[in-house]
Amino acid sequence: MTGWMVALWLGVIAQRLFELQLADKNARWMKKQGGYEAGREHYLLIVVLHVLFFAGIWLEKWGLNAAYPGWWPIPLLLFLLAQSLRIWCIRSLGRYWNTRIWIVPGHSLQVRGPYKYLRHPNYGVVMLEMLLFPLIFGAYYTAVIGSILNALLLLFVRIPAEERALMEAMNYNEEMGEKRRFFPSLERL
């Protein structure tokens, strides 16, 4: 890998580690507010998938000598745009943002930023990242396999667990109305 590509790869890993620290800090705050964690049983799957995702990129680039595609600036630009959406999601949820599912009874649902338009914009960003980031490095196997596994985990495990927990604790469907999960309705814009 070229120097800046290694820096990008390490920078994204550092970003994820920072986000885990932020999530831990937010979880401690939510717990003090009487919050509890839901859906704990699947969290290890998410962690393992993300570790394998970064390992897959590294393996393809170093072990299989994957070539950078000539069009790598396109997925890089789209990935950087997705990062701005990721930051918007995190800032919009503030102390309620987490990598785990935390419910704080008595607190209202956070419907700011992209959450005004979508139910799960952060998960949409994660899906984009799982596809785009490996493409920058020519790690096509990781892009395809990682994207499919991530989508299955989010669509069939994580999102249903989160929505179930939110519906049990607050007026989730009432608050979210007809909002879609990942792509806004043109009528809402």
Tell me what the structure shows.
The protein is mainly alpha-helical and 189 residues long. It has a single domain, classed as Up-down Bundle (Four Helix Bundle (Hemerythrin (Met), subunit A)). Helices cover 66% and strands 3% of the residues. It has helices spanning 3-32, 43-63, 73-93, 121-137, 140-169, 172-176; strands at 36-38, 101-103. It has a two-stranded antiparallel sheet with strand order 1-2. The longest helix is centred in the N-terminal third of the chain and has 30 residues, at 3-32. The N and C termini lie far apart (41 Å).
Averaged pLDDT: 91
| Protein structure class | mainly alpha
Terminal CA distance reads 41 Å
Shape: elongated
Summarize this entry quickly:
The protein has 189 residues and is mostly helical. It is 66% helix and 3% strand. It is built from six helices and two strands.
Key traits:
189 residues; mainly alpha; Four Helix Bundle (Hemerythrin (Met), subunit A); two-stranded antiparallel sheet; elongated; transmembrane helix
Topology:
Layout: H1 3-32, E1 36-38, H2 43-63, H3 73-93, E2 101-103, H4 121-137, H5 140-169, H6 172-176
Antiparallel strand pairs: 1-2
